[in-house]
Design brief:
Elements (H helix, E strand, L loop, with lengths): L26 E10 L5 E10 L4 E10 L4 E9 L8 E3 L2 E9 L3 E14 L14 E12 L4 E2 L5 E14 L2 E17 L6 E9 L4 E8 L6 E6 L5 E13 L5 E7 L5 E8 L2 E4 L5 E4 L1 E8 L4 E9 L13
Antiparallel strand pairs: 1-2, 1-11, 2-3, 3-4, 4-7, 5-6, 6-7, 7-8, 8-10, 9-10, 10-11, 12-13, 12-21, 13-14, 14-15, 15-16, 16-17, 17-20, 18-19, 20-21
Length: 319
């Protein structure tokens, strides 16, 4: 399996497992799994965050789609796994198994009471009387093109084909589409820095990924693309600019992906909110998006716009 060699730290198949915790209170280990149908009709994501020095895990899982309400499970006080990456919370159980390092990962979820939210902003403070439904995933992520490590932090991203079965309420949905999974570890303070992260697949078969943090100065951020032939390539010069609307939800972003500048339009939101150990709130609007490249290519995927306290003062609109 190809791993791009541009990082300042070595990446190996052993990194698919967990890592020894650092001493920082907010040291964490994060696993993301997202997926989207090629036509954007159905999508979702899962995040597992381990916080050993805070004595908890965060577990988020959602399902969105065309003419569907947001179905969301968000537990920020889950017990830390005691065996592998199996999480057991109130009314749910989830597993995350690397079946072939850097090549294949299987995820399962059995949840009995996920919230059904007609207004996605209710996710920031789920009403006590929100209707509930069952939500089940049995999905596998198969690597396409290779593995992309960041050059400056211990983190890697993997573009994937995604397939399996989704069950919501009494509905069973065979799924086949695409997505991305990522894994990172180290100190992450959700209440300090805002960022944009985006990944998707265009209709000619090209995968792409980019991120930028808002640090008060413009930098040339890295990104990658995977060609329709499956060639993974590192690029430099990714930037982004965003317009925001009501409740801080993004209306439109413009991504400067080298070789494929594009606009990003949210289709269905699946946000979450979080509170720091000291009581500081932050918001995390994440959305299934439609991507429209300037050369006419189209596609779908996921974008996130993290919003810590004071986020509007950061350089969101420059890019």
């Amino acid at each position: 399996m190809k791993i791009i060699d541009h990082g300042t730290w070595p990446l190996s198949e052993a990194d698919e497992g967990t890592h020894p915790a650092g001493g920082e209170r907010l040291w964490s280990e994060s696993f993301y799994f997202d997926f989207a149908a090629e036509d954007g009709s159905l999508a979702g994501y899962v995040r597992l965050g381990l916080y050993p020095n805070w004595d908890r895990a965060w577990y988020w899982a959602c399902l969105v789609g065309r003419d569907r309400p947001l179905v969301l499970l968000a537990d920020d006080c889950a017990p830390l796994p005691t065996s592998g990456l199996t999480v057991r919370g109130r009314d749910y159980r989830a597993t995350h198994e690397t079946t072939a390092p850097m090549r294949s990962t299987r995820l399962t979820l059995e949840a009995g009471a996920a919230a059904v939210l007609e207004d996605p902003t209710w996710a920031y403070d789920v009403p006590d009387g929100a209707p509930r439904t069952s939500l089940e995933f049995d999905l596998e992520w198969e690597t396409v093109g290779g593995v992309y490590p960041y050059g400056f932090v211990p983190r890697y991203e993997i573009p994937c084909r995604v397939a399996g079965v989704i069950r919501v309420g009494g509905e069973e949905i065979p799924f086949a589409g695409h997505g991305e999974r990522d894994h990172s570890w180290g100190e992450r303070d959700w209440w300090t820095v805002s960022w944009l992260w985006s990944s998707g697949r265009l209709d000619d078969g090209t995968f792409f990924h980019g991120m930028r943090a808002n640090l008060g100065a413009e930098l040339s951020w890295p990104c990658f693309t995977v060609s329709p032939e499956g060639v993974l390539g590192h690029r430099e010069g990714f930037t982004a600019a965003t317009e925001f609307g009501e409740h801080g939800l993004p209306v439109l972003s413009r991504l400067a992906v080298p070789g494929a500048p594009m606009t990003v339009t949210p289709v269905a939101f699946a946000p979450v909110g979080m509170t720091s150990p000291d009581g500081e709130p932050a918001r995390f609007p994440r959305a299934l998006c439609r991507f429209e490249a300037e050369d006419g290519r189209r596609g779908h995927g996921w974008t996130e716009w993290h919003q810590p306290p004071g986020w509007r003062e950061h350089s969101w609109r420059r890019g």
